[in-house]
Structures are given as C-alpha cells and as structure tokens.
Write a structure and sequence with these properties.
heterotrimer; A alpha/beta; B alpha/beta; C alpha/beta; A: alpha/beta; five-stranded mixed sheet; 8 helices; globular; C: alpha/beta; four-stranded parallel sheet; 20 helices
C-alpha cells in the first residue's frame, strides 16, 4: 500500500510518499499564493521522483494550515497530530517535540506509539517564531542562514527582553548604537526566541528525548539556546521540514 | 548623608540578618502591599514583617507566564515570577504570606503561592465600602488574622505589647510623614526619588534602626537651607510603585520636574495616617487601616478618592499629575478616564496617563511622554 | 419580513400580529435590517436544535425582553438594570414587589448578547461605543460591560433609574458602574463582598461574610425603596426564591439527562438560553418554566430514541465558559467529534444543591451567586473537578475568557489539578465569551481537532 501526506504551511508545501514503512520520496516547494496549486505541484513532484502517479496512492492525508483546501486529499488531520507521528517514526525515543515554524511554534508531548499526550501552541504572536529571526536578520543585513552560526560565536549574549517583535527591533537598534557586538546581539535574538517557546512549553513539560522540528530547526543557534533553556540535549531529524507530511503519510496507512 | 549610608549598609546585610533570625526561631511574615495589614500585630507576636514589594523587572513577568496567563496586573504576576525564578531569597525565606484581599489582581498572588509553592498563605478581606458593616467585616478579618498569628507563632498577642508596637510604628510613620511633607515647600530639600527609596526601605529594614536613620535624616533636612530645584511640581499617583520600579521617577526628575508627593500603596498610603488609640486596640487598628486610610481605586463611591487627590494636589500646590498604572488593573484604568475631566474642571492642571507592563521597550516612549509633559507645564501650558 | 424569524423564536402568528408595532419600533432603534434578519434565521437554523419547541420558546423569552428593553423608557415609570454576575433572587424580589407598569427590570448586557450577538451577530457597534467611552481596547476590559455601556451611550437602550451590581464576583462590574454614576449620574447600589476565603476553606464560609452580605442586601433594598418608591414585600421574596429553586432543580435534571446520555441528544448551544434565565429577571415565570418542561420532554424523547447530534461512543468532554455570543465555537467542538457532557457553570454538586433551594439568599450571597464558583479560586477548580468526575469525561476544555480576572488565575491550576487527579488531558483555549473579535475560529479549530484526535486515540487505546 502506497500512501502520501501533504503538508501545506504558510511558507512551504511538502509531500512525502510512503510504502511498506519506508519513505519512497519527498518534495518541498514554496506555497506561493495558492494553497490548492501548491499542493498539486508538490505532490506531482514527489510522485515524479518515485516514478508513480496519483492512482497509485491508496490514501492521502493533508495537514498544515492549508489542509482543508487540498481537494484530492481523503482526510485532513491537524499538523500537531502529524508531527508527533512523523517524529515518532524518525526518532522512536522522542517524548517531546519542539516545533518552530515561520509563523507559529508548538510544544508537543508524544507517547511511545506516536500519539499526542498534550500540546500547546502559539500562532498569535510573532515573537517565538521564525518570523522574529527573519525581521532581525533584515535589520542586521544578514542572510537568515548566517544567523545561527554567528550566534554561536558570542561570549556574552545580549539580553533582549521586549515581548513584542516590533519593539525588539527598536531595542536591537539601540544595542547596536551602544556598541554591542554583532554576535552578542544575534545570540541575544536567539535566546529571546528560544525563551518564549521554552516558557510556553512548560505546561506540557520536557521529557527526553526532546526533538526539534520545523523550518527553524536548521538553526543551530536556536537549538543551542533551547538546550540551555530546558537543560536537556536536543535531537534534530535529518530533514526536519518534512516531519508533518511524513506523519500524515504514515497515518494514512492506517486507513484501510 | 551619613544616615543614608547607615541605612544602605543595614539593607545590604538585612537578608543575612533575617536568615539568622529565622534560624533562631523567629517567624518571618511576608505580606502583599496595599496598606491593609497592620504590621503592629506581627511585631507583637514576636515575628518580623517583610513587605513583598519588588517589581519593575521584566524577567519575573516573563517567568510568570508558566503559572498564570498574562491578563492580570503586572506587579501581581511578578510576585510568583520572583518566587519561582529563585533569584530573590526574600521570597523563599518567608514562613507565611499574608494577603489582604482587595481585588482579584492581589488575590492572584495568594492563589499562585497557594497552589505552586509550599508557602503558608493567609488571606483576609478588605470590603470596598466604608459603612458600619464594612468596618465590622474588616475588623472581623483582623481578628481572624490575629488568631492565625497567635497559632502560627505560638505567642499570644497581649494588649501591652500591642500598644508598644503601635507606638513604634506610629513613630516611624510620623517621621516618614514629616520628611515627606517637607516637599510642600517651594524648594524641597529631598527629591521624590530619594524619598521613595527611603519609604521602600521601611518595608524591609529593622524598625528601630530605621527610626534612628529617619530621625537623623529629619534633623539634617531641617537644618538644610532651601536648595532644591524649582521645577514643575508633580503629584504621582497610581496603583503600584514597586521597589525597583523607579523609571518614571528618574525620567521625571531628569526632565526637571519635582515629584512632591506619591500616592500609592507603597507611597503615602503606607505612612500618612497614624493609629489613634481609643479604647479597644483592635478597633483602633481597624480605624486607621480601614476607615481613615487613604482611599485606593477600588473603593466605592470613587468620588472619595478623587476628591482626596484634588485636595492633595491643592495642598502640595502641584502643577500637574502623572497617573501611573500597570497593565490590566481595570479599576485604575476606568477611573483614569473620568478623573482627567474632573481634574481639569476643578484644578485646571494637566494630567499625564502612563501605563507599564514592566517591559524594557517602554523606556523610550515613556521618556518622550514625560519630557513632553514637563515641557508643557514649564511653558505654562496645560492650564 | 421578520415573521419567519419570530416563528423560529416560538412566536405564534397572533402574537406577531399583535406586537408588530412594538417590534417595528424596536428593530428600527436597534438598526436591524433585512439582511440582519436573514442572517439571524440562518444562524438559528445552523447552530441550534431549532426543531425543538422548547428551544424556540426560550428564544422567544429573550426576543421579547429585547423589545421590552429598547422600549422600556416609554412603557414604564422606572427602570432598574443589573447584569451578570448578579444574583437573581434579590433582583426578582424587588421586581415582584412592584407592578409591571411601575418598574422594568433587565440585565441589558445579557439580553443584547443573546439576541444582537448570538442571533444577529451585530454586537460590534456597541462594543466599539463602549470602548470609546471609558472601557478602551487593549486593557482586557470585560466585553459584557463594554456592550451595555456602548448601547446606553448610543441611545439604543435607555439609561436606568437605578443600577444594581454585585462587586464580589469580580471587580469590573462595580468599576464600570462607577463610571456610569460619575459621568452619567446614574444611582448605583452595590452588593459588596470580598473574594477572601482561604485555601482549604471551601466548601465552608465564615459567619461574618454572611452578616456582611445580609447587611448589603438590606442596604440594597432600602435604596431600591427610596429610588423606585415601592416597598419590598416578603411575598415577593418567597415567590422569587421558590420559582428560582423549581426552575433550577428542573434545569439540573435536564443537564444530568443530557450529560449521561450517549449519543449526546441535543447541542449544548440549545441549553444556553435556558441557563442564562437563571440570572436574567423576567416576569414570565410561568413561560420560562413551561419552556423548560417542554424541552425536558423533547430531550427525553430523543434519549429514548437514541438520537443525537454527536456520534455514539464519542469521547466526552467537559467544557468551561459558556459562550453566549458565538454558538459556532460550541458547535465546532461537537462537530469535531466530541460529546460535550456538561458545560460549566451548569451543574451543581449534591452539596450545593442541598443548600440552594429554599435557603435564604443572603446566605447564598455569602457563598457566591449562581454556583459557588466565585467563592474562591479553590472552589472554582474543585467544581470543575467535580463536574469532570460526575460525568466521567475523557477530557476537559477550558475556553477561558481572557478579560475575566476571576477566571484567568484558575486556568493553569485547573489544568494541572484535573490532569493530576483524573489523569485526563485538558485543553486550554484563550478566548472571549462576549466578543468574537478577540479570537480566531480557525486557530481554535486546529487546537480542538488535535485534542479530539488525541482523545479518540486515548479512548481506543483504553478499549484495546
């Protein structure tokens, strides 16, 4: 049985194709302005890679913020459920998932079987999401991929305590004017993002293994700050972006 | 000032001293500010009262998010933050936390400590009106508090020692007031900032040492020739002026204004009235701490408070009022709306409403507002 | 043009004809147009079990009060306002001591919520007016009080001759009424108390609290007599107590019937109108009791037939905070496959039930209005726990109103307590019972669907 999971987020769309408990193929593209088109396109790309076509798929589950607009999906399941399942497949010892995306962040308690025990999410406020890092990168004139490595070179991270992204921008500008080094400011930004999420996740609680997923998971600076914040080591799956779609594809195999 | 040095030395070692006292069996009774808990009762049973009035830092506010959603007054949220962050030993060495319950924001402090810590908590209520029955209610609460103290410390509260404690506290309050009202003069010998720090120290310092310090300061200030700056005179009022939350004071004084009186739970409400001993001591306490206490925003009718503030403004000849409130303290927010109009009508002086959530990013905007306000007054505007 | 709508609200054609002039007038003042009426019909059919006569009858009671409210100044000599969370019995005692012509009693915030909010979804103009006149946005002011202030300021409803308000449940009502007094000159009478019970006191409360509340009630009645010019009668008090108790008992039975049934026989949205009649004074005592009897009968029939609005065997949840303005949220929870066994604060534990009927209500004020929740945070959490236990739920959803200072501190404590004591998951949703602008249905849906999935998996695992 071959199944697929389609995860349409605000920034990127992902499809993963699974058969016999193994990943056959996957694709990632920017969502653009049409959820429906992005879902078709990315699924097409994944099918091409696996040398399959749509009728070969027994069951398709959609997830993510655009999940209800994927016409060819058989069922829509929330990204929290899918993330838990996906992480459980990649790292069976996972018990806590920290997911930080472009627009939101979540902390998920995962059981041994990949089901969710508890969760908390923030989708109201940019602080504590990838957006925060993007805004700051622009102000500092850095590429987003440079941010993490630079932050790790800091010896004395700044304390950025504004709760609001907009105001943090101002705070950062004045830190620069005060002569603080670039790496200290960047490290401070990473600490700020991490601490927002860490505090939010306390109601769920952190149990090992703690796994970090989502677009921001590629940022080692945030990973480091999270580890400091929760006092536990953090694992990152090889392709953190596709975890949701993978989970959706795996859940689809249960549908017979 | 010699006396100020003595005080700061004392405060520097106060924590060690309190820890030592506790080890030797003295109970430390922490309390939430508001001015409704008579310290006298605590002294009489051999315990030491410690006011938990810290605030102004953003970290405990962020920390509190794990225990209570953000929609509660910032100062009240901070308290569980300080306790759980563990940075301030004062919060951990108290044996009992007393919370005189006025509104739901203060009550939150009690709920958080009750559930998330193993500190003992005792509450008694403060009604929102001043009629006979409300007085009876408050008095009954004081009696319940007295019983609790006796049970908790194992010491009986006898009238003789209570009388002594009343006299001691009266003396401290009297001195604080004497020093404070020196700011009525055209050239105040002490700045608002200096006075507030002094007042705040009274919540933690040893009473006798503190009274000595006050006596010295008082004498010294009396001898001092008029020298203070002659800037715009400001009445600062609001819900909470926490220990550590000095930004408004600093900014106003840097802009050239004189804060001549501050009407807060940690301000004049703490020392303005003395206990008048008249028959039953508990009733005399209730009379001072409830009936005659400077009215805060959650008393009805609110007209009493507004009239009081107008009188105070006249008495201190202020040129403007700064209304400083914390986020989500609804009673103050609503009053600010109609008070400003009333003030203009009665006194024809301007009012500046400021709000804080103890966030670092507020500094710039606060400074802009305060400086502009001071400039307006200097230019004779706002009248 | 509104015939269909009023039929959906349980009006007979004769009554519609008889009241046409009044309804026309009221709707004009309220600004209700054709498109609003169409929207209202649609919403009623979409969200409520509108085919049940009991539901329609309850809707009718609220619609009648809306018209009464708007026209009150010209139809009555004096007007007395109150609002949730005021204890109903003193209000009804005052009301029944006067005749209809003399005094009109209403809880305008509630009436506007149930009609302009829930039916027409046209509450925003009142909210904005309230925000502009003393209760600004960004400060988490209670939207119920923004609504009623806004409606008065806009001239849609009259200013009252007396406002009666409870200041023990929370701080907001009393302060908002102070504003009414200072700026608009409305006399206000308070029923004051302190939220000071100690942790460990519940379910007891101290004597002096009762004495104080008793004195408050006496003071209230005195003010009422002075301002309205009527004497309070003992008979009125007895009638108020008794009719309240009878209604409450029957409502309790209905709630238990629904909570123990599988599948869930009617949507919880259909209970809201009945429930809030526990705090809205209406002279139509017989009408409200009859509507309740009818609804009970209809629900019993559904239970016997095994008919329901949620799948049989669905996970059962306890949902806190009754959303009066947006039935869509409650429906969304049910449509995601969760049976709402009980909403808070609907159900009373046996201890509380033993005290409520026929007890002196001054005694009850000592404990708290409605349902003891405001006794203390401890009580609030304990009652939540009792409700979960009584209906053996699989999970709980705390949809907390972010601007409610009484509720907010209980949220995390409730979550931890229920999870620890009962081992069931609790979903916390930040929302607002009275203002739909303060949350996003889409965001709530993601969380609720995830929670539903989580509960289904847990239930399946338990069965296996």
């Amino acid at each position: 049985m071959i199944t697929a999971g389609v995860d349409v987020g605000a920034a990127t769309a992902k499809t993963v194709i699974v058969a016999d408990g193994k990943i056959l193929s996957y694709a990632v593209i920017p969502t653009g302005d049409s959820v429906a088109r992005a879902a078709e396109k990315v699924t097409g790309a994944a099918l091409d890679q696996a040398r399959l076509s749509m009728p070969d798929l027994s069951f398709i589950i959609s997830t993510g913020y655009g999940r209800n607009a994927v016409a060819f999906a058989h069922k829509a399941v929330t990204e929290i459920i899918c993330h838990a399942k996906g992480v459980n497949f990649l790292i069976p010892a996972a018990r806590t998932v920290i997911d930080i995306g472009g627009q939101d962040s979540k902390v998920i308690g995962v059981r041994e079987d990949g089901t969710v025990s508890d969760f908390v999410m923030n989708d109201k406020c940019a602080a504590g999401t990838g957006r925060f890092l993007e805004v700051m990168a622009v102000v500092l004139g850095l590429g987003i991929e440079e941010m993490g490595p630079i932050s790790l070179t800091s010896k004395e991270p700044c304390n950025i305590s504004s709760t609001c992204t907009i105001f943090a921008e101002t705070e950062m500008v004045s830190l620069r004017a005060d002569g603080r080094t670039r790496e200290d400011i960047v490290a401070g930004i990473h600490r700020a993002v991490a601490s927002r999420v860490v505090v939010m996740g306390r109601t769920v609680g952190y149990k090992q293994q703690v796994v970090f997923t989502g677009g921001v998971a590629k940022n080692l600076g945030v990973k480091h700050s999270l580890e400091v914040g929760i006092g536990l080591p953090i694992l990152i799956p090889e392709e953190p972006q596709i975890v949701g779609a993978l989970g959706a594809a795996l859940l689809a195999t249960r549908q017979t | 000032m010699e006396a100020m040095k003595k005080l700061s030395d004392h405060l520097a070692t106060r924590l060690t001293e309190l820890t030592r006292l506790r080890k030797s069996g003295t109970k430390l009774i922490g309390y939430a500010p508001g001015g409704y808990m008579p310290e006298e009762l605590v002294y009489t049973c051999g315990a030491v009262p410690v006011g938990l009035i810290r605030g102004g830092d953003p970290e405990p506010v962020a920390e509190s998010a794990a225990y209570v959603p953000r929609f509660i007054d910032t100062f009240c949220r901070s308290q569980i933050g300080y306790r759980m962050m563990g940075g301030d030993p004062l919060y951990e060495i108290i044996d009992l936390l007393v919370v005189p319950v006025t509104d739901h924001n203060i009550k939150t402090i009690a709920d958080c400590f009750n559930f998330f810590t193993n500190t003992n908590v005792f509450r008694f209520g403060v009604p929102h009106q001043k009629d006979e029955h409300a007085f009876e209610y408050y008095l009954a609460g004081l009696h319940a508090f007295k019983d609790k103290l006796e049970e908790f410390t194992g010491n009986k509260i006898d009238n003789g020692r209570l009388r002594e404690a009343i006299d001691l506290c009266n003396r401290m309050r009297g001195l604080l007031k004497e020093i404070s009202i020196m700011r009525r003069s055209e050239r105040p010998p002490i700045t608002g900032y200096e006075f507030v720090k002094l007042n705040h120290a009274s919540f933690i310092a040893d009473k006798r040492i503190f009274i000595d310090v006050l006596e010295s300061i008082h004498q010294e200030l009396k001898r001092k020739p008029p020298s203070g700056p002659k800037g715009p005179r400001i009445l600062l009022t609001g819900s909470t002026l926490a220990m550590g939350d000095y930004k408004v004071l600093e900014m106003a004084e840097n802009a050239g204004a004189n804060i001549v009186i501050e009407e807060f739970a940690e301000g004049m409400r703490h020392y303005w009235e003395n206990v008048q001993v008249n028959g039953d001591l508990m009733e005399s306490l209730a009379d001072r701490y409830f009936r005659r206490r400077v009215p805060p925003a959650w008393f009805r009718p609110s007209r009493e408070r507004l009239d009081y503030l107008i009188e105070l403004a006249r008495d201190f000849k202020v040129d403007g009022i700064i209304w400083y409130q914390l986020m989500y303290r609804s009673s103050y927010d609503i009053q600010a709306f109609y008070f400003e109009k009333l003030l203009k009508k009665e006194l024809n002086i301007p009012m500046l409403k400021l709000e804080s959530d103890y966030d670092v990013s507020e500094r710039g905007p606060l400074r802009t507002r305060i400086e502009t306000f001071v400039e307006i007054i200097k230019a004779g505007g706002g009248r | 043009m509104y015939t269909e709508l009023f039929k959906l609200c349980g009006f007979e054609p004769d009554e519609i004809k008889k009241e046409r002039l009044r309804i026309d007038k009221a709707f004009k003042i309220l600004g209700i147009e054709d498109e609003d009426i169409k929207r209202g019909e649609k919403r009623l059919k979409q969200y409520l079990d509108i085919e049940l006569l009991g539901v329609r009858r309850f809707l009718g009671i609220w619609m009648r009060e809306l018209v009464n409210l708007v026209l009150a100044r010209e139809e009555h000599e004096k007007i007395v306002y109150s609002d949730f969370p005021m204890e109903l019995r003193p209000l009804m005692s005052m009301m029944l001591s006067t005749d209809e012509k003399k005094a009109y009693f209403a809880t305008p915030g509630q009436i506007l919520n149930m009609t302009m909010g829930q039916i027409f979804d046209k509450l925003t103009p009142f909210l904005v007016a309230g925000e502009e006149n003393g209760l600004p946005p960004g400060a988490a002011h209670c939207a119920l009080y923004q609504t009623r202030l806004g409606a008065m300021v806009k001239g849609v409803i009259p200013f009252p001759d007396l406002s009666v308000i409870a200041s023990y449940h929370c701080d907001q009502p009393a302060e908002a009424e102070q504003l009414l007094h200072e700026v608009y000159g409305v006399p206000v009478a308070y029923l004051d108390s302190c939220p000071d019970p100690n942790w460990g006191d519940w379910p007891k409360f101290n004597d002096y609290r009762v004495r104080y509340c008793g004195s408050q009630a006496r003071k209230l009645f005195q003010t009422f007599e002075e301002v309205i010019g009527c004497k309070m009668t003992d008979e009125a008090k007895r009638t108020a107590n008794k009719s309240n108790a009878i209604f409450r008992l029957k409502f309790q039975q209905l709630v238990e019937l629904i909570g123990h049934a599988d599948p869930q026989p009617i949507s919880q949205t259909s209970l809201v109108h009945a429930f809030f009649l526990n705090s809205m004074p209406t002279r139509d005592i017989a009408g409200k009791q009859e509507a309740l009897e009818i609804l009970c009968g209809e629900v019993e029939e559904r239970v016997n037939q095994g008919k329901g609005v949620v799948e049989k065997g669905a996970p059962g949840v306890f949902v806190t905070a009754t959303i009066s303005v947006d039935p869509g949220i409650t429906r969304m929870i049910e449509q995601s496959g969760l049976a709402i066994r009980i909403q808070i604060p609907f159900w009373l534990s046996p201890w509380v039930m033993a005290r409520h009927p026929y007890r002196e209500w001054a005694d009850m004020i000592g404990v708290g209005p409605c349902l003891d929740i405001p006794h203390s945070c401890e009580a609030h959490v304990a009652i939540n726990l009792e409700n979960c236990k009584a209906f053996n739920v699989d999970g709980a959803i705390d949809f907390y109103p972010y601007s409610c200072r009484e509720w907010v501190p209980t949220v995390m404590i409730t979550k931890r307590t229920i999870e620890k004591e009962l081992g069931i998951p609790v979903l916390v949703l930040e929302g607002d019972c009275y203002d739909t602008r303060n949350y996003s249905a889409g965001q709530l849906r993601t969380r609720v669907e995830t929670f539903a999935e989580l509960l289904r998996a847990a239930k399946a695992a338990k069965m296996a």
